[in-house]
Design goal:
By secondary structure, the chain is mostly helical. The chain has 10 helices and no strands.
Length: 198
C-alpha cells in the first residue's frame, strides 16, 4: 500500500529529477552543480542529499538498490528458465524500475555523452556482474570452476559479461536513434549475434 509519505517522496524525487535533467541538458552534466539543482528545485542541498546520495545518483539512480533488484529478479526466475532468459527478465525489470521510457532515454543519452559519468556507470555495472555470477552459476548447476580456488565457473562469468555487453550495446543504439528503435528487440538482436542465432 502506498502511503501519503511515499507519494510525497515520489513527487519530490520527480521534481528534483526534472530540474536536474533540464539543467544537464542546458549546460552539461559537469557544469551543473548540486547547489544549482537544489536552488532551482526550491529545496536545500541537505534535502536533496536525502533523496539522492550523489550527483551521479540523479542520472544513474541508486545503483546498489538496482543491482539488488536485478540479482533478486534473476534468482527468483523459475528453475526451468535458462540463464540467458533469467538475465533478460532481470534487465526488463530494472529498465522500468524508476523511470518512464522517455526519462530512461534522456538519462541514457546523458550517460553515453558524458565520459566521467559513463566511466562511473561502467564501474558500478562491473559490481553488478560480480554479484550475478554465483546466481547464474547456481542456475547452470555447475560447481566451482575447473581451476583450484574460489574462481567462478568460466561459463557463468562469460554469460553474465556477454549479457551486460548486449544490454549496453542495445541501450547505446537506442539512445543514438532517439528511442525510435525497440530496446528489447535491439537487445535480442545483440544476443542472437553473439550466440550465433542471427
Amino acid at each position: 500500500m502506498t502511503t501519503l509519505w511515499d507519494r510525497s517522496r515520489q513527487v519530490a524525487v520527480q521534481a528534483i529529477l526534472d530540474t536536474a535533467v533540464r539543467l544537464f541538458a542546458e549546460q552539461g552534466y559537469e557544469r551543473t552543480t548540486i547547489a544549482q539543482i537544489a536552488r532551482e528545485a526550491g529545496i536545500s542541498q541537505r534535502s536533496l542529499f536525502r533523496y539522492f546520495g550523489t550527483k551521479e545518483d540523479l542520472v544513474c539512480g541508486d545503483q546498489d538498490a538496482l543491482g539488488e533488484l536485478l540479482r533478486k529478479t534473476v534468482e527468483e526466475q523459475p528453475a526451468g528458465v535458462s540463464a540467458w532468459d533469467a538475465l533478460r527478465a532481470g534487465f526488463e525489470v530494472v529498465l522500468t524500475a524508476n523511470h518512464t521510457a522517455e526519462r530512461a532515454l534522456e538519462l541514457s543519452r546523458l550517460i553515453f555523452a558524458t565520459p566521467s559519468l559513463h566511466a562511473r556507470y561502467i564501474e558500478k555495472r562491473l559490481r553488478w556482474q560480480a554479484e550475478l555470477v554465483p546466481v547464474v552459476q547456481a542456475r547452470l548447476g555447475t560447481g566451482p570452476g575447473p581451476l583450484p580456488g574460489p574462481l567462478p565457473d568460466p561459463q557463468a562469468k562469460a554469460i553474465v559479461a556477454t549479457v551486460f555487453a548486449c544490454v549496453d550495446t542495445a541501450t547505446e543504439l537506442w539512445a543514438a536513434h532517439d528511442g525510435r528503435l525497440d530496446l528489447a528487440d535491439l537487445y535480442d538482436q545483440c544476443v542472437a549475434a553473439v550466440r550465433g542465432h542471427g
